[in-house]
Write a structure and sequence with these properties.
Layout: H1 2-33, H2 41-59, H3 62-86, H4 91-114, H5 146-154, H6 159-177, H7 179-189, H8 191-196, H9 201-227, H10 239-249, H11 254-274, E1 278-279, E2 283-284, H12 287-291, H13 293-305
Antiparallel strand pairs: 1-2
Helix pairs in contact: 1-5, 1-6, 1-9, 1-10, 1-11, 2-3, 2-4, 2-9, 2-10, 3-4, 3-9, 6-7, 7-9, 10-11, 10-13, 11-13
Length: 323
């Protein structure tokens, strides 16, 4: 039973760590399915985290902070669309420019406004999202396996964790069961055919990037108002890049991408428990190596264990209307 409890504890941490990865990878799925490379997921999440924490601390409401985070992320997403869709700019350069700009701007603004070394004040009370106890969780906690799993693993998360879980089937339904999703996938494969059908390629890509901005805004807000209780410098810690790697590992499909996010998050959850543990034969593994495990796994997967990934055919290619 003790091993089972340890497993549940690790999986509980996995779900919490996976939440921003899932939301960001679903966000990247819309932009890249429409043919726009979005390396700027990291910057959008970081900008949203700063905006959410700042506005939540000033307004006293985590929900108002979430709205500010979403608006900030959508604004950055529209900036990316303006550079890459309207002006046909290099999509990788634009995404990296957003990442660099936000990484420098957020701690600078935080220092100028709060004078706390580049971070925002700690969030308290209604300024952050708290864990929710699902119905009957306390009543069934003592039931072996099923009751304990429900009470400890399924219940006890904040609302954004459940939003992330719901986002996977919702995004899959939108992309593969709606007219909008069909058009997004079509514009990422053959924009000329979409244009010939009388549908604006640019409008579709703007719409897809707007969805990307909303999901990245929720992911970033989660980091500072739910998973954490303030904004700190570079708090995304490469999660945007991990989400992009999960998207490639999942071959731009929702369910495999979800499993990739859970795999990366599971590695992260395990490395937290392994720090300082004296293992047989090998002894205590250096903390720096353990902290690098999720990133090492990412490199290994993308280097050769993924198989051949076939991205959308028009990805990264600016569409120039034929005259």
């Amino acid at each position: 039973m003790e091993l089972f409890q340890i497993f549940i504890t690790i999986m509980d941490a996995t779900f919490r760590v996976a939440t921003p990865l899932i939301l960001a990878s679903m966000a990247g799925m819309f932009s890249e399915r429409s043919g726009v490379v979005d390396i700027g997921l990291e910057g959008k999440m970081l900008g949203a985290a700063f905006a959410a924490a700042t506005i939540a601390s000033l307004s006293g409401s985590a929900w108002v902070g979430l709205g500010a985070g979403i608006l900030t992320s959508v604004a950055l997403s529209m900036l990316h669309a303006y550079a890459c869709v309207t002006h046909k700019g290099n999509q990788v350069v634009s995404g990296m420019a957003i990442n660099i700009m936000v990484a420098g701007l957020t701690p600078t603004l935080a220092f100028a406004w709060f004078r706390m070394g580049g971070q925002t004040p700690a969030l308290k009370g209604d300024e952050r999202f708290h864990s929710l106890t699902l119905p009957f969780a306390d009543a069934v906690r003592d039931i072996p396996v099923i009751g304990y799993t429900y009470a400890e693993l399924i219940s006890g998360h904040n609302i954004i964790v459940y939003i992330a879980a719901a986002s996977v089937p919702i995004c899959a339904w939108i992309l593969f069961r709606t007219r909008f999703g069909l058009r997004v996938r079509a514009v990422g494969e053959n924009p000329h055919a979409v244009d010939t059908a009388g549908i604006s390629v640019n409008v579709l890509r703007y719409q897809a990037l707007a969805v990307t901005g909303v999901l990245c805004g929720i992911a970033g807000s989660y980091l500072s108002t739910a998973h954490g209780a303030a904004f700190i410098r570079d708090m995304t810690a490469g999660k945007g890049y991990l989400a992009l790697a999960a998207l490639i590992f999942g071959k731009w499909k929702p369910l495999p991408t979800l499993f990739a996010c859970l795999l990366f998050a599971f590695t992260d959850a395990v490395q937290v428990r392994m720090q300082g543990v004296d293992l047989p034969i090998v002894g205590v593994i250096p903390g720096q190596f353990i902290q690098a495990l999720p990133y090492i796994l990412t490199v290994l997967l993308l280097a050769g264990f993924v198989g051949k990934a076939n991205p959308p055919k028009a990805i990264g290619q600016p569409y120039i209307k034929e005259k």
